Amino acid sequence: MRSIIGSGRSDSHLLGLTMQDLTIQVLGAMFCRVIIPRSEVRSFKLGSVVSLKSASITQAPAKEIALLSHIPNASSNIAEKACSSGLRAIHEAEMSVRYEDCGFAVGAGVDLMSGASAEINDGALRDPITKKSMAELSDEKARELGFSRDDYDLYALESFTRAKKHLEHYWDANYLTQIYVPGKGLSPHIDQNVTYREVTAESMAKMRKISGCEITTFTSASKLGDGCGALTLASPGSAKKRHRSPLAKILGYAEHAEKESKDFICAPVGAVQEALEIAKLPLSKIGSFWINEAFPSPPFYFMRTLNIPWEIVNPWGGAIAFGHPLGATGAILCVNAICQARKEGKKYVVVSVCNAIGEATAMVFEIM
Predict the structure, then answer these.
(1) Sheet holding 176-177, edge to edge
(2) Domain locations in the chain?
């Protein structure tokens, strides 16, 4: 289950919530769908980045959320791995099931960038080694690799086009939940970032470049975001005992590191290759790849290097259109990937998220 993705700014439909509020509502919606005794959830792992620096955080926020979500027996902790935090949290929950005898576990990611100060958001998007923003690093590496402003604009336009085309699918398949915000009522039932942006080739050409960049504009980069996504994981025995039919099976997970900070845009290639090796699957078996659109360069480089057709990379759009709530994105992409694969009859899907500093993670799913 996931929430909508708010804009990450003062006009976000999720503005005013804390990370605890949002996560509790998403978990509540998920447990209405996944009918299991909550007392049997023995592990809760939560990815987050900017929200960890908010005023609402005191002691042990993951355990606080677990208790208020009525999973009191869950050993709970935070996973912090920059943009890969949500995917890392799901992996940690998976490890609890595989190796710690947890019958049920939850892996989730959450971030509310609208609730963070400009200084916190800037710090989360700035490389501590070079002192450059992630946009500047991406722009620099993209130019080294031969990508142009036209390439970036083309990719961004396609991301918006795909996202708008498939907006309702998450809702129709019951993967998307509305969120109650005090004083505002229920959030929209579709992602707001896509709905208010009418992007055209003409508007792309006029868009201002990000400071320090030569090809990256505010439209071709991912946007700030608010959001939460979560997966319930189970051992085969526990799922069978509770008569739960699995949506998917995790076949492999890998983390890959490059040498320089700017090489984060190349790192998904290594992460995906290593995860597929663990899963014992060739590239040719994968029905779709969800390579996070922090910028156009990671999916572009991924497609070019591994000769992957664009049709199966981020087929329903990504963070350029929807927004990129840093700690939540990995979990949200897993929800999106499973939803798309089940609707379109894909057998295997891959999710990969690049992260500072020069790293990426990847997870392989078999759709059941």
Answers:
(1) 75-79, 41-47, 104-112, 226-234, 2-3, 176-177
(2) 248-367
List pLDDT tens digits, range 108-132: 999 999 999 999 999 999 999 999 9
What is d(CA 111, CA 324) in angstroms, rounded to the nearest whole number?
9
pTM of the full structure: 0.96
Residues 6 or more apart whose Cβ sits within 8 Å of residue 77: 44, 45, 46, 62, 63, 92
For residue 197, pLDDT over 80 is answered with no
Q: Which of 6, 14, 81, 15 lies closest to 46, judged by CA? A: 81
Fill in the amino acid letter for 323: G
Name the E strands within the chain. Answer: 2-3, 41-47, 75-79, 104-112, 176-177, 180-181, 185-186, 226-234, 248-257, 288-291, 348-355, 359-367
The CATH class, in words, for 248-367 is alpha beta
